[in-house]
Design brief:
Radius of gyration: 28 Å
Order of helices and strands: HHHHEE
Strand order of the largest sheet: 1-2
Number of strands: 2
Shape: elongated
Length: 128
Amino acid sequence: MLGWLAAGLMVATFSCREARCLRPLAMAANLAFIGYALAADLPPVLALHLLLLPINLWRWAQACREGAAGRPGVGDRNATVRHRTRARPSPPAGRARWTRSLGPRSVNARWPGPRKGGRRGPSRPGVP
């Protein structure tokens, strides 16, 4: 019965989206698997969950600290949205602002227009 409880708790951890919810469930699953491994005499399972328990405890404490400090933490699913929508400072006057895909964008940055003559030449010499 303890093995089924441990398995159910493990499945529940995979359904969590936030680390602050996932880590306590993972620790409960670790404890249940430790009990199951002791009762069924399964040393590899015991060793694995004895190793995972302090890791889950450390990561849970880390997620709680970062969430309490107001920083986007491990368990904050809205951190990416807040990061993308954060206001950025404007560039100094007269300087080009570089964007990831478009290159410099400002009044002073000039880009050549489209090529005249329509069609570009062959990409390799001798190829029509």
